[in-house]
Specification:
Layout lengths: L1 H14 L1 H37 L5 E6 L17 H10 L3 E16 L2 E10 L2 H5 L4 E4 L4 H6 L3 E4 L1 H8 L8 E4 L2 E9 L14 E5 H9 L6 E6 L5 H15 L10 E5 H44 L1 H9 L4 H38 L7 H27 L3 H6 L2
Parallel strand pairs: 3-8, 5-7
Antiparallel strand pairs: 1-9, 1-10, 2-3, 2-6, 2-9, 4-7, 5-8, 6-7
Helix pairs in contact: 1-11, 2-9, 2-11, 2-12, 3-8, 9-11, 9-12, 11-12
Amino acid sequence: MLFNAFVLAFRAISRNIMRSFLTTLGIVIGIASVIILVTIGNGATQSVTGSIEKLGSNMLTLMPGQRARGPGQGNTASLFTSEDVRVLKHELSNIKAVAPQAARSVTAVYGANNHVTQLYGTDNDYFIAKDWGIEKGRAFTPAELQSGKASCIVGTTIEKELFGAQDSLGASIRLGKLSCQIIGVLASKGASGFGQDQDDIVLVPIRTFQRRISGSIDISSILISSNDGVDSTTVIEQVSTIMRERRHIGEGEEDDFSVFDLKEIINTVSQTTRILTLLLGAVAAISLLVGGIGIMNIMLVSVTERTREIGIRLAIGALEREVLMQFLVESIVLSMLGGVIGIILGLLGAWAGTVAFEIPFVMEANVILLAFGFSTMVGIVFGYFPARKAAQLDPIDALRHE
C-alpha cells in the first residue's frame, strides 16, 4: 500500500511540475539558507579562534591596573620591572616562558623608505610565549640581552616595506633615534583575530629599549606561557600570589594588576559567534514554516481539484486510511524533494560563501540531517489536514462534484 501511495504521489507531482516546484520553493530556500548561514558561521568561528590562537601558546598576559574601571577613573597602578620578570621566572612552576614586553610606536627608516611600526622591547622568551618562529637569521644572544646591544628582529611586513625584494639580514635601520642591525626576520603570522597585522613589528632587547628608547626601567606587560595540559587557573593564582607580595598589597585590598587568559578570550569569541550563527539559522528556518503553509495550501487546492477522483476511489472500495495515506505521502514527497534540492543548493552556496570570505568550509552533518528531518516533518504536519479532509469526503457528494 505504501509503495502504491508513493507511485501515485509521483504521478500527481509530475502532472504539475511547475506548480510542484513553486510549492516546494519555500522549503528549498529555508533549508538552503539554514545550511549556508550555519556553515559560514562555523567557518567564521574557526577562522577567528584560529587567528586568536596565533597570538600565543597557552598564554597569559599580566597587565598593571584593573581590567574594568568606571568613568573618570584612570589607571594609576605602577608598571612592572625587570625584577618582577626575574622573580616570576624563578618562582612560577609548570611554565614555558615569562617574557617582558614594553612597546612604543616608532618610524622605521632605511634609505629613502620609512614605515610607522610598533617597537617592542623583550627577550627570547617572547618567541616561546607567542609561539613564533624565526624564518631567517637568529634570536638574541645572551650577550646582546645582557649588554643591551642595538640588534633587532623584524617582521615580514617591515622587511617588505623597507627592503622590497632585498635581503634585510645584516642591514642597519633607524628606529626613531636608535640605529640597530637586523639579525633576524620573524616567520609570517598574518592578521590577528582583531584585524591587526602581526608582522608589522620590530623587536629589540628589553635593555636596549629601556636605555635607548623609553629611558626608564618600566615594563608595560608580562607574557606568561604555561606548559601544555596545565590548568591556567592554577598559574593565575600563583601569579596573583607573587605579584600581591611584590607590590605590597595587604589582605582585603584590591589587586592593582590583571591577568588576562587567552583561552577565556577564545571561548568568549567562540560562544558569541555560535550564538549569532544559531540566531541567523533560526531566522532562516522561519521560511520553512512559510514553505509548509505553501504545501498545505496547494494540497487543499489539489483535494478540491481531485474531489471526483477521490469519490470514485471511495465508491469502488478504497478505505479512508488509504486516501489519507495517498495525500499525506504526496505532501511528504513534496517537502522531501524540496529538502534534497535545498541541501544541494545550500552546500554549493556555503562553499561559494567560504571561498568569497576566505574562511574554512566547516560542514556539520547533523545540521544537514536536522534540516532534512525538519522538512519531512513539515510535510507531515502541514499535509495531514488536507489529507484528512480528502479521506473524510462523502463518496456520493464527491461523485456529484463538478
